[in-house]
Amino acid sequence: MAGKTLYDKLWDSHLVQQRNDGSALIYIDLQLLHEVTSPQAFEGLRLHNRKPWRLTSSLATPDHNVPTTVEERKSGVNGIADPVSKIQVTTLDDNCDEFGITEFKMTDARQGIVHVVGPEQGATLPGMTVVCGDSHTSTHGAFGALAHGIGTSEVEHVLATQCLVQKKMRNMLVRVDGELAPYVTAKDVVLAIIGEIGTAGGTGYAIEFGGSAIQSLSMEGRMTVCNMAIEAGARVGLIAVDDTTINYVKDRPYAPKAEHWDMAVESWKDLVSDSDAEFDEVVVLKAEDIKPQVTWGTSPEMVIAIDQPIPRPEDQDDQTKREGYARAWKYMGLEGKSTLADITLDRVFIGSCTNSRIEDLRAAAEVVKGRKVADTLKQAIVVPGSGLVKAQAEQEGLDKIFTAAGLEWREPGCSMCLAMNADKLGHGEHCASTSNRNFEGRQGFGGRTHLVSPAMAAAAAIAGHFVDVNELVKH
Amino acid sequence: MRPFTTHTGIAAPLDLANVDTDMIIPKQFLKSIKRTGFGKNLFDELRYEDEGQPDQECTGRPLRKDFVLNQDRYQGTSVLLARNNFGCGSSREHAPWALDDFGIRSVIAPSFADIFYNNCFKNGLLPIVLKEEEVDQLFKEVEANEGYELTVDLANQKVKTPSGMEFEFEVDAFRKHCLLNGLDDIGLTLQESDSIKAYEEKRMKQAPWLFEARSL
């Protein structure tokens, strides 16, 4: 019999009940909650007079529509200018208070984007099952945890039962072998993978990312890769546990301590796919082939290397693709443009659950240090992923580097990634963004998003258009 | 939950691949703390010329005439024909809530994104996967015939056309059972409380750190 994949192992260790009809009851160790996808779930509990099954399994923080300007943040929830956003954040506070769920409120230094906060606190641990009403929950798979996004009905289901009804996914291995070139980051790797397999390539699969290029990534880089598994259609992204994982988790506030730590580490060592495990699908990329990536269209799969020409609709053989490209060209206003450098940028956004951790901010700061953002830019903002990331960055003087270069330094939250707060693009504006989705209207009505790494966003801010960061730093 | 057994209704063709949930219901409408009222903002950016705001009255807003659901012949649509990878992106359940509130009971496509597909079943909405060529044929027929209606029969797992053609589809037994009977699956899971408790007891011995109280 073939060995087990990491996904198989995580599934087996959380199986409460296998039913005859093919569905299964899976136990959930950690649920992260935020203000947008939880109010209706709490309301459901109240309607049915139900209580959370186990309070210690939940952690909440508002992130999606909190403001990020220093002024608006001074007085916590009361400072939120948008009354509708304010109600939603207040509702989360009230629900957590009523049901007794731990919440890092807006004024708490630990508040931030759920997918930054969970790992930062050691709430996310290897071998866990982690869910959240947010598709980017795949982020936590970087720890060898089975983590995926769920809808609000399932948020309620997990609160009430600690379980989810699931069907087992298929196994896919995406291997990236070799060594990455300078300034080619985790973001470029995952964008290249999405370019290769497409936005639906991972549908129905749990993707394990492996190979020497993945193993050489830091935990933060691994989180960036797993974060965007959903952009390849896979709810679950996974990376095997190794010393990098264990060293990252050690001594975090919620991490196990003393004898429990030793016991945990011993069990986590098994969180790798067996050498004879069989995958339903294997995709291999060579690290050396990957260059800094930039999306040109309205789907993450519409991505090219910085030195490639923008693909034209009329050159596509497949009719659906041709139509999709034509629609994207029109939306993105690409007529008359042939390369990425031809696009004049209006805004730059460095942040989001994909790229707002300390290493992301360091990478961006390194590029802008001693330089000035282009005059043609309307705005460039840096939004740290959590209050603790912000504090760390300030301790390292990164905030000063950013502001000296002409970028705005903000308070933590999801911000311009989905523009639920005041940070958004105007109609027709182009943005170099370190976020994860370039869908139509995602960053604002009529806004045009280009996904890039933090270093590439920083370089674009300086140049006013896309440029290979390697070229920029030479001068 | 409202049961789904058999439904007959006007079909409309949304001829666009990779329709994401941001498109189905844009972010500004996610600020609501309710499950209802999203129908008027379904496909907001495809449907209206202007930028929609939460709590806005939509009756006077300028419509995009080329958008399928704005056309006279598709008024009252309850079966949506769609293309590959429908519902990709964000996990927002507001997407099926918006479809349901608009009056859509079933979406037929060659493929769906996983989270969206799953969310539909929790809301009495039936997503149906048919073969690409079958969906193509339905697109052709609906475009050629005004007032074209489809019948969706969940018990027999069939989509029936006005000319009497039938297309079979697959659906998980558990999901089918819940949808046919309008069952609340939280209630069903709670019937298995003993199994959950037994699992916790066993797991607590293997991995006690997972059950430690989170002290702040």
From TrEMBL, chain A:
SUPFAM superfamilies: Aconitase iron-sulfur domain. It catalyses: (2R,3S)-3-isopropylmalate = (2S)-2-isopropylmalate. It comes from the Bacteria. [4Fe-4S] cluster binds at residues 353, 414, 417. Residues 8-464 form the Aconitase/3-isopropylmalate dehydratase large subunit alpha/beta/alpha domain. Its cofactor is [4Fe-4S] cluster. The keyword Lyase applies. Pathway: Amino-acid biosynthesis; L-leucine biosynthesis; L-leucine from 3-methyl-2-oxobutanoate: step 2/4. Binds 1 [4Fe-4S] cluster per subunit. Its EC number is 4.2.1.33. InterPro entries: 3-IsopropMal_deHydase_lsu (IPR004430), Acnase/IPM_dHydase_lsu_aba_1/3 (IPR015931), Acoase/IPM_deHydtase_lsu_aba (IPR001030), Aconitase_4Fe-4S_BS (IPR018136), Aconitase_4Fe-4S_dom (IPR036008), IPM_dehydratase_rel_enz (IPR050067), IPMI_cat (IPR033941). Keywords: 4Fe-4S, Amino-acid biosynthesis, Branched-chain amino acid biosynthesis, Iron, Iron-sulfur, Leucine biosynthesis, Lyase, Metal-binding. CDD domains: IPMI (cd01583). GO terms for biological process: L-leucine biosynthetic process. GO terms for molecular function: 3-isopropylmalate dehydratase activity; 4 iron, 4 sulfur cluster binding; metal ion binding. Catalyzes the isomerization between 2-isopropylmalate and 3-isopropylmalate, via the formation of 2-isopropylmaleate. Belongs to the aconitase/IPM isomerase family. LeuC type 1 subfamily. Heterodimer of LeuC and LeuD. This is 3-isopropylmalate dehydratase large subunit. The gene is leuC.
UniProtKB/TrEMBL annotation, chain B:
Coiled coil: none annotated. One of its GO terms (cellular component) is 3-isopropylmalate dehydratase complex. It holds the Pfam family Aconitase_C. The keyword Amino-acid biosynthesis applies. It comes from the Bacteria. The keyword RNA-binding does not apply. Transmembrane segments: none annotated. GO terms for molecular function: 3-isopropylmalate dehydratase activity. Pathway: Amino-acid biosynthesis; L-leucine biosynthesis; L-leucine from 3-methyl-2-oxobutanoate: step 2/4. InterPro entries: 3-IsopropMal_deHydase_ssu, Aconitase/3IPM_dehydase_swvl, AconitaseA/IPMdHydase_ssu_swvl, IPMI_Swivel, LeuD. Keywords: Amino-acid biosynthesis, Branched-chain amino acid biosynthesis, Leucine biosynthesis, Lyase. SUPFAM superfamilies: LeuD/IlvD-like. One of its GO terms (biological process) is L-leucine biosynthetic process. Residues 1-132 form the Aconitase A/isopropylmalate dehydratase small subunit swivel domain. Its EC number is 4.2.1.33. It catalyses: (2R,3S)-3-isopropylmalate = (2S)-2-isopropylmalate. NCBIfam families: leuD, PRK01641.1. Catalyzes the isomerization between 2-isopropylmalate and 3-isopropylmalate, via the formation of 2-isopropylmaleate. Belongs to the LeuD family. LeuD type 1 subfamily. Heterodimer of LeuC and LeuD. This is 3-isopropylmalate dehydratase small subunit.
